């Protein structure tokens, strides 16, 4: 087979799903019949997948006529689109202050997309945020929202004072005071009473020391 013919066959290959195969021999017979259709250079049946690759030109009616011995049904298989993954770097999230309506948010998004260096942008009206894919300065973003005097703040810097406020509102740690210092008066009084009873027992109740302790 010449190189030119191979190229032609590759360009004109069409895949069809086939319903009704009862056996591999029937699939082989169908393939043989399809090859006889004028305009078909070659055909290849995949019995397991219930498909046929047709190299050349043939209508569905012609294919079903080739499989009429088993009442086969043929349907073109839609080509699968290969979606290449799109990797967008430099995603930045900004808080937006000043939105008055969803239409204004949409207009702002459209304006941001037109900034040089921005690949894409997506506004979240409910959260008052915009995701910017690409490079854009705050000044450029606010210029894009100048029609509504929007204020744009990078999300990481949106609440710079939160941490400091939390730190300021923390209750100061209470300094621990030793038990003997906190209750020194009570301990001193208890000792005096104890020494008083001891003096009373040793020196007697009328003793001067005992009287002073009590």
Description of the molecule:
The protein has 214 residues and is α+β, with helices and mostly antiparallel strands. It has three domains: 8-76, 2-Layer Sandwich (Alpha-Beta Plaits), CATH 3.30.70.100; 96-154, Alpha-Beta Plaits (2-Layer Sandwich); 179-213. The chain contains nine helices and eight strands. It has helices spanning 3-11, 24-35, 60-66, 102-113, 138-144, 162-169, 179-182, 184-203, 208-213; strands at 13-19, 40-46, 51-56, 73-76, 91-97, 118-124, 129-134, 151-154. The chain has a four-stranded antiparallel β-sheet. Strand 2 and strand 3 (51-56) form a beta hairpin. The protein is elongated, with a radius of gyration of 45 Å. Mean pLDDT is 79; it is low at 1-10 and 158-166.
Class by alpha and beta content: alpha+beta
Question: Structurally, how many domains make up the residues?
Answer: 3
Strand order of the largest sheet: 2-3-1-4
Order of helices and strands: HEHEEHEEHEEHEHHHH
Number of strands: 8
Biggest β-sheet strands, sense, barrel: 4 strands, antiparallel
Beta-strand share of residues: 15-25%
The CATH class of the largest domain, by name, is Alpha Beta
Number of helices: 9
Q: Kindly, what is the distance between the CA atoms of the first and last residues, rounded to a whole number of angstroms?
A: 129 Å
Give Rg in angstroms: 45 Å
**Regions with little confidence, pLDDT below 50 for 5+ residues:** 1-10, 158-166
What is the overall silhouette? elongated
Q: What is the percent of helical residues?
A: 25-40%
Q: Name the CATH architecture of the largest domain.
A: 2-Layer Sandwich
CATH T-level fold name of the largest domain: Alpha-Beta Plaits
Arithmetic mean of pLDDT: 79
Protein name: Heavy metal translocating P-type ATPase
Keywords: Membrane, Metal-binding, Translocase, Transmembrane, Transmembrane helix
Organism: Macrococcoides bohemicum
Domain HMA: 12-75, 90-153
